[in-house]
Amino acid sequence: MYEKIWLAGLGAYARYEKFGTEGKKLFEELVEDGEDVRDRANDKVDDLKQKAQERIGETVGRLKEVLRISKGEEEKTDIQALSEQIEELSKAVKALSAAEKKAAPRKPVANPAVKAAVKPAEKKAS
Question: Helix, strand, coil shares of the chain as percentages rounded to 5?
């Protein structure tokens, strides 16, 4: 196809030379038509390029949203896992504290009311 277009251009130039003034007019019209086709093709290319850039931008935007959501979910999962570990550690500390309290010998606590009751009885016995 490209070769035929090239050959048509060469043929138009050959007629230009053959027909003199009339050929020159025809050649100039063909050049103008060619410029119009080129400009329309450039406009189409620019439109397609703009549409492609918009679609790429939209796709990148969606990907960023998806990645943020995924990252957010990972952060939530990490925070949840850390919270569970903290709860487990708290339970372990409480269990150790309870076991330590049971294992430690207790000193008798002096109750002032019991002491007061025992002292008068000791005095009467003497």
Answer: 90, 0, 10
